[in-house]
Amino acid sequence: MGPPLIRSEDGQLVGFVFVDITSSDIDGYVRAAAHRISEQVKLPPGYYIQWAGQFQYLKEAEQRLAVLIPFTLLIIFVLIYINTRSATKTIIVMLAVPFSLVGAFWMLYLLHYNMSVAVWVGLIALAGLDAETGVVMLLYLDQAWEKFVAQGRMRSLSDLYEAVKEGAVQRIRPKIMTVSAILFGLLPIMWSPATQAGADVMKRIATPMIGGVITSAILELLIYPVIYVLWRKRSVFVSSESFHFVHSCPEEF
Questions:
Q1: Confidence band (pLDDT; 50, 70, 90) for 236?
Q2: Got the DSSP string for 126-153?
Q3: CATH class of the domain at 58-252
Q4: Which of 122, 125, 132, 198 is 20 to 30 A from 17 (CA-CA)?
Q5: pLDDT exceeds cutoff 80 at 180
Q6: 236 within 8 A of 156, measured Cβ to Cβ
């Protein structure tokens, strides 16, 4: 009927109520419990409730992640820009991140995993992995583009389509090999028994990476070529107009 022990913290009397929950959704439990307490419990003046324990640690971790995640994406953006020397190419590569988030959140939904620090760690690792595969995909498309331009074959949209097809087809085998290697490394972690030490944390790190890699591989092969065509289309028109102008007035050159 009352607190078993009253302590003194920061010059105030404190009574602790310990709660053991079976659900892994600590944040959801605290929200529901706080709502129920506010409806049924009327605290006297000078009294208040403060949630501590794992919930407090979770909130502190979320505050750190709110700074860490944008900083990580900024580092990835800068590294890609240093590699490509093009803001447009960097943005195209970074599009792999939302592609992967589709599969990541679907896997979390299907396995009934809640957002946690471990899940955010997996998402951060997934962002770096997707940026790497996006750079390789863009590299193959650029190589095909430069090959057609050097051979004088980039004069129309049909030539651009052929170049993009050639670059995308060359990417299928290494893309499948990359995805297979990642899946073979992460699936044993996701299927590890729950009694194994650290399995709960490792499963939540591996799950978003598995789902994200699958959808990223599919969407990169299907959507990246389309985005590349839209970007290079203007260059084809400019080079085509220059070609016709040179051949119409050869004596001036």
A1: low
A2: HHHHHHHHHHHHHHHHHHHHHHHHHTT-
A3: mainly alpha
A4: 198
A5: yes
A6: yes
